[in-house]
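User: quick one, fold this
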Amino acid sequence: MKKSESGDMNSKALIQHDHNFDGVDRRGFLRCMAWAGTGALCLVQGGVLKSYALGSHDHSKKLDGVGELSFAQISDSHMGFNKAANPDVVATLKAAVDKINALPTPPEFILHTGDVSHLSKPEEFDTVQQMLKSLNREVFFVPGEHDVLNDEGAGFRERFGRNPQGQIWYSFDQKGIHFIGLVNVMNLKAGGLGALGPEQLEWLEKDVKQGNG
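Assistant:
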């Protein structure tokens, strides 16, 4: 990370290898994850979703309003990765877990938004599962492309799948709010573009209709 003379982050300094021409330097992103703790606290207040980096927000006021909801979001634990960008992914994930456990008001649940593992290995999934047990909260997962590398998502599905039809996508409700976990990494297109596919879109249409009564 570099700062400009004014003290602001210079995003251009981070983009050294824009492989997919999307403005994201993967190595720089992983380096950011190492110090950020790969986590955010999400608050729903008055129907508006707000998010704060873990450890950056004043949590002195407890969430006691009617209909309010809080959940923690973590991502890109990349368990098994050990290169220079983040040589200790275990410590990075532990930092996120510690920050969540330090919140004065525990979140309703935890959402892991993909790349749980780096190479879809069983021991990588197992390590993350064990580390997240200390949160004492239900954890919902959606896969990233690194979670479905060699087995079409079978290992991920076995541990984290929630769809009774055996698919990885699913939905759930918390305090009157409907959450939908979609999967766009099973059939990646050229350039790394994701696709939901007709089966998932058909399921999504039915799920939304049911949610609307």
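User: anything notable?
Assistant: Residues 20 and 144 are 16 Å apart (CA to CA).
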